[in-house]
Amino acid sequence: MATYVLVPGADGRAWYWHRVVPELQARGHQVVAVDLPQDDSVGLAEYADAVVRAVGGRSDGLVLVAQSLAGFTAPLVCERLTVDGLVLVNAMVPVFGESAGQWWANTGQAAARSAKAVRDGRGPDPEFDLRVDFFHDVPPEVTEQALAQELGSPSATLFAQPWPLRGWPAVPTRFLQGRDDRFFPVEFQRRIVQERLGITLEETTGGHLSALGHPAELAEAICRPPVGGGRSPVAGH
């Protein structure tokens, strides 16, 4: 039995994971879904503090699951807690000294998103639309529930801070990527994950918000034993 610590992306609310939590619990696991600070003055350290507080005194079988922007936060938590594994989901993978604000241009995300839109028949450089980019494969009732709430937003301070780790933590790391993600296309992520972590991503069902759109499939992928028992990122990454 594992204790899965679910860290949301830019929205920052534990609610994002509400459809995955019962799926993991039904598989016999404990689950901690984290709420992140909604405060423009806080940065990476405070986000990591929030995860550590949510974990509390739990220490056995901890596995961090990090969605999207949480790829910047979860590795910092690995420096502070004994973690058995890290599962990145449609995540941003940073390198030393890079801020979340710089990541987009450094990785070529805009060009990758545009190319994906062309392949899908939506034309180049479409204007960002929450429903089209994020909620295209989420059930309508879940979409309306999400958009009826006050959406969270990431800290502006976090986006400006350089990522402080000189290397990826020595923790077995997996990367799950939705094959229908329109925001971070799978071909783009395959390149970034190989270049920055030296591991191979695992394709999963769904788009960028797979926890809302395909919770059972995502839970199954999270729990699935990795090939070879999991791999730590290669030295130098």
TrEMBL record:
<keyword id="KW-0378">Hydrolase</keyword>
<feature type="domain" description="AB hydrolase-1">
    <location>
        <begin position="5"/>
        <end position="221"/>
    </location>
</feature>
<dbReference type="Pfam" id="PF12697">
    <property type="entry name" value="Abhydrolase_6"/>
</dbReference>
<dbReference type="InterPro" id="IPR052897">
    <property type="entry name" value="Sec-Metab_Biosynth_Hydrolase"/>
</dbReference>
<protein>
    <submittedName>
        <fullName>Alpha/beta fold hydrolase</fullName>
    </submittedName>
</protein>
<dbReference type="InterPro" id="IPR000073">
    <property type="entry name" value="AB_hydrolase_1"/>
</dbReference>
<dbReference type="InterPro" id="IPR029058">
    <property type="entry name" value="AB_hydrolase_fold"/>
</dbReference>
<dbReference type="GO" id="GO:0016787">
    <property type="term" value="F:hydrolase activity"/>
</dbReference>
